[in-house]
Design goal:
The structure is a single chain. This protein has helices at residues 25-31, 69-73, 188-196, 230-242, 264-273, 303-310, 325-337, and strands spanning 6-10, 15-19, 49-54, 57-58, 76-78, 83-84, 88-93, 110-121, 126-132, 146-151, 154-161, 176-182, 202-209, 221-226, 249-255, 277-283, 299-300, 318-323, 345-349. It is α/β, with parallel strands linked by helices. The chain has three domains: 6-93, Beta-grasp domain (Ubiquitin-like (UB roll)); 110-211, Translation factors (Elongation Factor Tu (Ef-tu), domain 3), CATH 2.40.30; 221-349, 3-Layer(aba) Sandwich (Rossmann fold). Strands 11-10-13-8-9-12 form a six-stranded antiparallel beta sheet, with helices on one face. A hairpin with a 4-residue loop joins β8 (110-121) and β9. α6 (303-310) runs parallel beside α7 (325-337). The chain is globular, with a radius of gyration of 21 Å. The protein starts with 5 loop residues before the first strand and ends in an 11-residue tail after the last strand. The structure holds FE2/S2 (inorganic) cluster (FES). Residues 38-41, 43-48, 66, 78, 80 line the site of FE2/S2 (inorganic) cluster.
Length: 360
């Protein structure tokens, strides 16, 4: 056992860094500018799984479906939860590492205080929150990343996906970050933001984090968004279209009722600007009036059922999915049943953090 920092080597790339004994392996790696695959940062998705080839870790808390006791006995750990307990640790990441291209700057998470520029409901349950970066903060991110919100008395911090796409160099085009925040009945963070966030107030944010990204794929892309899962998809798709992605990109956006739709203006603008992009909203709980003189723009039903009904062939497609865990699971299974290869289904989900009794 050690109380001293550990020297950690990521054997996939040969990169090394120092990890304090009270810091998760992932956090120290990201702070050192070393990319490690990750998603939830809450011990719930398994993306950051690594084999400990040498050394010891304290596993911390994790969900059993993210890492099993058997895997821990075999020497695996989740880097977002595990803290070092030996002077030297050698890790082999299970999921692919995205090595930085030559000359590419590392994206380093930082913590800063932002001023709330706008906070207004866009549906009965979704708040649109816009914050301004303080002058002088240098901030870079990849499309699809998220920020953690440090809120008074609420632990652990809650991540929300950035809606904007970065500029080509990773900077934020106009100095503002926006988020869509669903109020969950027992969600301490979402309730705090809905109840207290107002223009002129301040919020402490930390990030960016996350690995959700537009797939590297030479073919059509289907994007499936469940409610505020739209945020990372908007960011990723917008950047890809601006980069000249040449294949068709189709988005299905699922909400329960028409009054829960939001960001349709952004989607319509994107479709107008990029003819290869099409989108359709689908309502899962609202009956649609019989077709009138104008074509009804909404589909009806759950996305997995729509894919089945349409007999959609996804064998040449990549699929992006973001939303609640249940939505993501159902859509990913349906996409694979329609022929999508498992390694071409990219998911992002709002996974819980901490033991279930503490989870929002
Ligand atoms: S379990 Fe570590 S990032 Fe999700």
């Amino acid at each position: 056992m050690t109380k001293d920092p550990s020297n950690v080597t990521v054997t996939n790339t040969g990169e090394t860094y120092v990890c304090p004994e009270d810091t998760p392996l992932l956090d120290a790696a990201l702070a050192a500018g070393i990319h490690m695959p990750h998603n939830c940062r809450g011990g719930a998705c398994g993306t950051c799984k690594a084999k400990v080839l040498e050394g010891m870790v304290d596993h911390g808390w994790a969900m059993s479906f993210a890492i099993t006791d058997e895997e821990k006995e075999q020497g695996y750990c989740l880097c977002c939860q595990s803290k070092p307990r030996s002077p030297t640790i050698r890790l082999a990441m299970v999921n692919p590492m995205h090595a930085r291209e030559a000359g590419e700057e590392a994206i380093l998470p930082a913590e800063f205080t932002t001023e709330i520029v706008a906070a207004h409901p866009v549906t009965p349950t979704v708040l649109r929150l816009v914050v301004g970066l303080p002058a002088g903060v240098s901030f870079r991110f990849r499309a699809g990343m998220n920020m953690e919100f440090e809120l008074p008395g609420i632990e652990p911090p809650r991540p929300y996906s950035i809606v904007e796409a970065p500029a080509a160099d990773g900077t934020l085009p106009d100095g503002q970050l926006s988020f869509y925040i669903t109020r969950h009945p027992k969600g301490r963070a979402s309730n705090w933001l809905h109840d207290h966030a107002q223009p002129g107030g301040t919020l402490t944010l930390r990030g960016p984090y996350g690995d959700f990204a537009f797939p590297r794929h030479d073919g059509p892309v289907l994007a499936l968004a469940g409610s505020t899962g739209l945020s990372p998809i908007l960011s990723a798709v917008s950047r890809a279209l601006e980069d000249g992605f040449a294949h068709p990109v189709r988005l299905l956006f699922s909400v329960r009722e028409r009054k829960e739709l939001f960001a349709c203006d952004l989607l319509a603008r994107l479709a107008r600007r990029h003819p290869t992009f099409t989108w359709q909203a689908t309502l899962t709980r609202e009956a649609i009036a019989s077709p009138g003189p104008q074509e009804n723009p909404f589909a009806r039903g759950r996305i997995p059922d729509l894919l089945t009904k349409e007999s959609t062939d996804l064998s040449t497609s990549a699929v992006l999915v973001a939303g609640s865990p249940a939505f993501v699971d159902a859509c990913a299974a349906a996409a694979q049943a329609r022929g999508a290869a498992a390694d071409r289904v990219v998911i992002d989900s709002f996974l819980p953090r901490g033991p279930v009794s503490q989870v929002e």
